[in-house]
Every structure is written in structure tokens, then in C-alpha cells.
Write a structure and sequence with these properties.
The complex is a heterodimer of chains A (192) and B (154). Chain A is an all-alpha fold and 192 residues long. Chain A has 10 helices and no strands. In chain A, helix 4 packs across helix 9. Chain A is globular, with a radius of gyration of 18 Å. Chain B folds into 3 domains: 52 residues, no CATH class; 50 residues; 32 residues. The longest helix of chain B has 40 residues. Classes of the chains: A mainly alpha (192), B mainly alpha (154).
């Protein structure tokens, strides 16, 4: 194992958590909470579920602290847990059982996602329609392609990292991304 | 430059170009190629459009009580785990105590005690054997009387 000083900051923090330093866990939480919730939200497209899954991810990280070894980047581990939970959620079809639909969930979302500089109601409506098309296009992707695109676009993870998160080869990730972007181009290219 | 759009493997060049992740030299080569390749140019324009559309999809703010809920959840989980450990350990401890008690009762020290159940078992057996011996002696005596000539006449 590499020396602690040579490790990435997140791995150093996690090793301190392993030694019983609770404040290091708080630092990890502060650093990764928002991007993790955003990633899960875009994946499952429900804010409440995204936060619930994110809580489960951090709980699992905390519970696994005693056995933590920095064999991979911390974010790879973190998003591997998150993706596993989210894909299980999507596979289990809890959405269907709960009687909710993506449209209903989106309709209930607050307007806090909109930028404040919107000058007119018309532009506001156009922006909302545009965002709805983006959301629907991403939602139409198969879950694994969706996860790959979100990690590539929003988290800017490298192919190798995405491959480790999704437990597949780098070439499989490239293929997933190629097919996913192909579908998105077909559905979204007219937006700009 | 070979046209990147021809294979999925090289198409990642175009994806990287639209994500602004290409090195300046590679970017320049690709841009020169796109000037004379309408297919790659169209691909890049559409991919850029997707990239910018996705940029517009912002995430919602995380709930203010997220951390509080998480720490409460960790605490609940810690308590549940402790209770689960106790539920597992109590029967094991009880079984261990029972086993220790049995071993102690069977030990030589305990057998030497004057009021043990083993002693009473031995006494019953001794009495039974003695009664059998008496019965046998009586039978032998009757047989002996029957074998002596004239004894019946006496």
C-alpha cells in the first residue's frame, strides 16, 4: 500500500475515519454530498429517492471504514456503491410499485433549478420545456448507459474509472457512451 | 488523418473534442480534418449541442437537514447493530454457562460430595443384590433338605 502522504486527499481522510476521526468523515461528506445527490437525482430522477440513496451510500462508507484499503480512488469506490444502489432501485421497479411516474415527479419539483436571470414568463416556459426534453431523453436511456453518460458528463470521470464503477472493461464503457450519445444526439441536437 | 467517425474506437476522439478534453495538438489536427469532412463536422455540431443541452440540466440543492438525518441514521444503525450483537451473544453466553455447570457437576470434586445422587444409586443396587443373595440361599437350603435321605422322616 502506498504511504499515506502519497495518497489522494480523500483516501487520506478515509484512513483517518478508519482510525476513528469522525471530523474527517464530515469533511468527506461536505466534499461529496452535493455531486453525489445530483448524480443520483439525474439517474433516478426523483429528488427524495436520490437523497435517500445518498444517505445509504454514506452510511455504507461509514460502516465499511474498519476494512477500508485505498486500493482505488475514493470517488471510484463512492460512485460504485451509489451506482450499484441506484441501478438496483431502477431494476427493482420501485417506481412502478409506488404508482409514481417520472412526469409526476418532475412536475412536483420546485422551480429552484431555474436560473434567477429569466426575464420573461415566455422564456421561463421555453426553458422549462427544454429542460423537460433533456430529462426525458436521459430517462429514455438504459440505466447503465445513463450512468455512464452522467459520470462522463457531470463528474468528468475517466473511462478507466467509469469502467471500475460499472464493473466492465474500458472498451465496453466507450461503447456504452457511443451508443448513449448517439441516442441523445437524435433527441436533443435540435435544442441548440 | 483517418476519419474518426468510421469506427466507434476513434469516435471517442470526437466525443473528447466536444467535451473539450483533447490536447491542443490533437484538437488542431481534428479541426483541420473536419474542415473537409462534412460527416465529422455534423457529428461534432450535434454532439456539442447535446453537451450544451446537458449543461442546462442543473441539480436541485440538497436538503438542509441532509447531514442531521445522516448522522441520526448512523446512530440508529449503531444501536441496531449493538442490539443484534447482544441478541447473538446472550444465547451463546447462556449456553456456555449451562455447559460449564454440567461439566462442573460431572467433575471428580463434585462426585466426592457426600450427598450425591450417584451414592443413592449405588445403595439401591447393593440392597437389590443382597436381596437376591438371600433368595438364592433360601433356594439352596430347600434343595439341600430335599437331597438328604430320611430327612423328610425326621
Amino acid at each position: 500500500m502506498a504511504s499515506v502522504a502519497a495518497l489522494e486527499p480523500d483516501a487520506q481522510l478515509m484512513l483517518r475515519v478508519k482510525q476513528g476521526d469522525a471530523s474527517s468523515f464530515t469533511l468527506l461528506l461536505v466534499r461529496h454530498r452535493t455531486p453525489l445527490v445530483h448524480y443520483l437525482y439525474r439517474l433516478v430522477q426523483n429528488q427524495a429517492i436520490a437523497e435517500e440513496l445518498a444517505q445509504e451510500v454514506f452510511l455504507r462508507v461509514y460502516k465499511a471504514r474498519a476494512n477500508y484499503e485505498p486500493s482505488a480512488r475514493f470517488t471510484t469506490w463512492l460512485y460504485r456503491i451509489a451506482t450499484h444502489l441506484a441501478l438496483n432501485y431502477l431494476r427493482d421497479g420501485r417506481k412502478e410499485r409506488s404508482g409514481e411516474s417520472l412526469d409526476e415527479e418532475t412536475a412536483g419539483l420546485p422551480l429552484r433549478q431555474l436560473p434567477d436571470r429569466r426575464p420573461t414568463i415566455e422564456q421561463d416556459l421555453l426553458e422549462e420545456a427544454r429542460r423537460e426534453q433533456i430529462r426525458a431523453a436521459v430517462a429514455a436511456l438504459p440505466p447503465k448507459q445513463r450512468a455512464a453518460v452522467l459520470m462522463h458528463k457531470y463528474l468528468e470521470l475517466e473511462y478507466a474509472q467509469i469502467a471500475r464503477v460499472l464493473n466492465c472493461s474500458e472498451s465496453a464503457v466507450k461503447s456504452l457512451l457511443f451508443r448513449a450519445y448517439e441516442k441523445l444526439r437524435a433527441r436533443l441536437a435540435h435544442l441548440v | 488523418m483517418r476519419c474518426p467517425i468510421q469506427t466507434k474506437e476513434t469516435a471517442e476522439l470526437l466525443l473528447a473534442y466536444c467535451a473539450r478534453k483533447l490536447e491542443p495538438e490533437t484538437r488542431a489536427v481534428l479541426e483541420r480534418h473536419m474542415e473537409r469532412c462534412p460527416e465529422c463536422r455534423a457529428f461534432a455540431e450535434q454532439q456539442k449541442a447535446v453537451w450544451e443541452a446537458l449543461d442546462a440540466w442543473e441539480g436541485a440543492p440538497v436538503s438542509e437537514d441532509f447531514d442531521v438525518r445522516l448522522f441520526a441514521r448512523i446512530e440508529r444503525d449503531r444501536r441496531t447493530s449493538r442490539r443484534a450483537r447482544l441478541r447473538l451473544h446472550v444465547p451463546v453466553a447462556a449456553a456456555s454457562l449451562l455447559l460449564a455447570a454440567v461439566l462442573w457437576l460431572r467433575s471428580p470434586w463434585w462426585s466426592a460430595a457426600p450427598e450425591s445422587e450417584d451414592t443413592s444409586v449405588v445403595e439401591v443396587e447393593t440392597v437389590e443384590a443382597a436381596l437376591e443373595d438371600i433368595e438364592m440361599l433360601r433356594a439352596l437350603e430347600l434343595l439341600a433338605r430335599a437331597d438328604v435321605p430320611g430327612s423328610a422322616r425326621m
